[in-house]
Hints:
alpha+beta, 6 strands, about 55% helix
Amino acid sequence: MIKERIEKDGIIKGYYASSHILASEYVTDKKLLTITFGTGARYNYLDVPLTDFVAFEAADSQGKILNSIIKPKYKVEKMANADLEVLKEEIATAKKLELDNYKNNLKLLLDTVMAEELNNFNNLKDAYHMMGSYVSKMSDFNNSKKE
């Protein structure tokens, strides 16, 4: 099951809560799927259409889709092992970006509500600061768990 997902410049990176598969990277214009296992082993699967990648990414079990759809259909290349410490940093960065986006969206929403309904929401500023503090504490907690 996918834990984190980042899509930028035609590259989709996914990080998984899987017993064997740690991460994937899909380059949309090249139809190149790279799978990284928990051991650091990496494999490129060539000419994988977006539909099969999406099936892999969205599955409850990436391993089942890898074994039933990806491996039987596509040419594979063994790559150099991944640096697991670098991958852990990427996952931590993805989580931080997700929390930052959440905080920014929350602030925007509350600022909008305050601007439009200030008279009806006298305690909204206090609620906003409490929520911001809560999100900050969540971020600190998540970061401390990784160390």
